[in-house]
């Protein structure tokens, strides 16, 4: 079962306690009546739906019942980070790997290839 | 028509229902006073004073004094249960600090799960880690049991209090009965 960290409960909890609540950081206009139809359409209907990293709202509905935000990879379903509602988008530097997201996405010639091991530690005296 | 007026009789859900298997015992607990308390951090001190116990502010913890227990459910939400005669709703009524206290005594019912198989019985439907290291005595959480939402409180090493909505009570009790059968097998 997928474990999701709730920033309010400060703990990994099973996915059954959570519910997705759509894309995060969609800012509502402060003057709703003044915006154009096109802008309203963008705000109300248009979502990014990327293949890769997405910022989403989640709700710990069968737990503390709080909304929070999460950065998730839509390909691997891996949660990179979760943070409290109202906080700015976190820096994902270092959390995202540049490798293919999953083995299924690798080209055939790269399948079943062992990852190169780390370079062995240098012995004393070596340059 | 006046003859047909009947006195309202309130029947507690699943009253007296029990189940016993090897190492596990389930029992419906007697009715209790309960309130759902919502309050910002600034009101916690005043409410704690009025309720006579310190409202827990750490996730997954509870505080208990006498017959009264306060369970942390969320950053600004508590479930206060009183098995005694004092209604916590009355105690909160005099508090001037901003808060919302709603009486839910009859919305919930409670089931006690006790015995050496208690942990595996609840684990049959609850996806959380209920080992003593992760869920010690006094730990509490709103969570899932099977298909229904429950509030789980560990009252002793081998004892849990399962709070659920009364309309779910038949399902929850039956689910725990099946789980207890498995746990004792």
Structure, described:
- The complex is a heterodimer of chains A (127) and B (185).
- Chain A is mainly beta.
- Chain A has one helix and six strands, in the order E-E-E-H-E-E-E.
- Chain A has a domain at 18-90: Folate-binding fold, CATH 3.30.2270.
- Helix content of chain A is 6%, strand content 26%.
- Chain A has a four-stranded antiparallel beta sheet, with no helix packed on it. Chain A has a two-stranded antiparallel sheet with strand order 1-2.
- In chain A, 13% of the residues are buried.
- Chain B is of the alpha+beta class and 185 residues long.
- Chain B has two domains: 16-31 and 107-185, Probable tRNA modification gtpase trme, domain 1 (Gyrase A, domain 2, 2-Layer Sandwich), CATH 3.30.1360; 32-105, Alpha-Beta Plaits (2-Layer Sandwich), CATH 3.30.70.
- Chain B has helices spanning 44-51, 88-93, 118-123, 169-184, and strands at residues 18-21, 24-28, 33-38, 62-65, 68-74, 77-82, 100-103, 108-114, 140-145, 148-156, 159-165.
- The chains are: A mainly beta (127), B alpha+beta (185).
- At the A-B interface, strand 2 of A face strand 9 of B.
The CATH superfamily of the largest domain in chain B bears the name Probable tRNA modification gtpase trme, domain 1
Radius of gyration of chain B: 17 Å
> What is the global morphology of chain B?
globular
CATH class of the domain at 18-90 in chain A: Alpha Beta
Specify the biggest β-sheet of chain A.
Answer: 4 strands, antiparallel
> Into how many domains do the coordinates of chain B divide?
2
Percent of residues in β-strands of chain B: 35-45%
């Amino acid at each position: 079962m997928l474990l999701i960290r709730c920033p309010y409960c400060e703990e990994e909890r099973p996915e059954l306690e959570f519910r997705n609540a759509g894309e995060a950081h969609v800012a509502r206009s402060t003057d709703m009546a003044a915006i154009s139809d096109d802008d309203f359409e963008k705000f109300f209907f248009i979502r990014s739906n990327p293949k890769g990293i997405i910022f989403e709202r989640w709700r710990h509905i069968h737990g503390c019942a709080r909304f929070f935000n999460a950065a998730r990879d839509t390909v691997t379903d891996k949660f990179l980070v979760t943070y409290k509602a109202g906080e700015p988008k976190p820096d994902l530097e270092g959390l995202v790997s540049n490798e293919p997201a999953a083995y299924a996405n690798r080209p055939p010639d790269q399948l079943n290839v062992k990852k190169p091991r780390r370079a062995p530690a240098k012995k004393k005296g070596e340059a | 028509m006046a003859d047909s007026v009947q006195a309202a009789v309130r029947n507690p859900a699943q009253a007296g229902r029990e189940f016993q298997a090897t190492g596990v015992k389930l029992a419906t607990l007697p009715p209790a006073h309960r309130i759902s308390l919502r309050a910002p951090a600034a009101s916690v001190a005043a409410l704690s004073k009025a309720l006579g116990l310190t409202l827990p502010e750490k996730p997954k913890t509870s505080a208990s004094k006498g017959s009264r227990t306060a369970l942390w459910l969320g950053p600004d939400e508590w479930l206060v249960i009183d098995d005694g005669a004092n209604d916590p709703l009355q105690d909160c009524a005099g508090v001037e600090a901003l808060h919302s206290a709603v009486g839910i005594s009859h919305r919930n019912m409670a089931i006690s799960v006790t015995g050496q198989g208690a942990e595996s019985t609840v684990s049959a439907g609850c996806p959380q880690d209920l080992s003593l290291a992760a869920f010690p005595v006094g730990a509490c959480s709103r969570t899932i049991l099977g298909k229904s939402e429950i509030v789980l409180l560990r009252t002793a090493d081998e004892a849990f209090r399962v709070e659920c909505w009364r309309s779910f009570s038949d399902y929850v009790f039956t689910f725990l009965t099946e789980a207890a059968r498995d746990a004792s097998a």
